[in-house]
Amino acid sequence: MSGRPVVLFYGATPAYRSLSADTNNALTGPDVRELNADLVAMGYASSSEIPAGSDVFSSWTAAGVEKLQSALGVTANGTLGLGDIVFLPGAARITSVSAALGATVPTGQAVMSATSTARMVTVDLDSAQQSEVAAGDHVTITLPDNSVTPGVVTSVGKVATSASPSAASPGSSGAATITVLVTPADPAATGTWDQAPVTVDITTASVHDALVVPVDALLALSGGGYAVEVVGTNGVHHLVSVTLGIFDDADGLVQVSGHELSAGTPVVVPGT
Fold first, then answer.
1. CA gyration radius, the chain
2. Which is the most buried residue in 138, 178, 189, 228, by most CB within 10 A?
3. Is 168 exposed, middle or buried (0-12, 13-18, 19+ CB in 10 A)?
């Protein structure tokens, strides 16, 4: 009804019917259990009046609903019609409102969109890299002001989508992507930015005390494998075969091992 508030309650079962008492206390169900728990949590009923886990719409439930309705300034009749309350698993943040003030809303039409209140980073990852990323991987998040904060991969999508050329972001190849969600380790460190572009570096493997060279220093050998061009103490250049390890895509480095290589050995990197 126009001008009547819709109250958000917490619960996993959506509101799907009117809720009210009857003489036999016959109205029961998970939605009633959620309502009872929320009424107690908000102080409109006590745990002695509505025991924990109760799924019965009792006279105490009706009394709690009446107190809620009085606080909202609506008719206190102890009945909640379909549309008077909404159940969501937790707090929600309204991101957009699609309905216009005063407009008639057809049945089933969305009037707003909402997201979780938790800070989250969404990554559109090339679907070809899906197997390289897993929930629990540690990442670094570079914010718009170039400050860096850690995070953890929360989930990796399984369904790939392709952006249309007009919808692709600048610099994007338009290749199929999957959605990866990242949770900041310190949400407060992400500031107050909303839908701001960030850079996410995902660590898929790590090694300690690695010997690394720039990826550009690698030379493909005709017989297979790779080598680097080493500058000897006498200034003579020669090739040294190397075994590759982990790549650091962020810094353009690669782990290598070779019998003539050690920390500080000069290698040739082609000029740009």
1. 30
2. 228
3. middle
Interatomic CA distance for residues 80 and 147, integer angstroms: 49
Phi, psi torsion values for 215, nearest 5 degrees: -55, -35
Q: What is the per-residue pLDDT for 272? A: 55
pLDDT confidence of residue 10: 95
How far is Cα 40 from Cα 62, in angstroms, rounded to an integer? 12
Give, for 125, the enclosing helix (H) or strand (E): strand 121-126
Distance CA 121, CA 180 (A): 8
Please give the full DSSP string across 67-106, using - where no structure is assigned: HHHHHHTS---S-B-TTSEEEESS-EEEEEE-SPTT----
Q: Which of 28, 145, 20, 17 is nearest to 83 (CA)?
A: 17
Nearest one of 41, 73, 34 to 55, comparing CA atoms: 34
Note the pLDDT of residue 46.
Answer: 97
> Could you give the 3-state DSSP secondary structure of residue 52?
coil
pLDDT tens column, 141-158: 999 999 999 999 999 999
Structural domains of the chain sorted by starting position, each given as residue range(s) with its CATH number in brackets: 7-88 (1.10.101.10), 121-203 (2.40.30), 206-272 (2.40.420.20)
CA distance 124 to 221: 35
Residues of the chain with pLDDT under 50: 167-172
d(CA 234, CA 159): 57
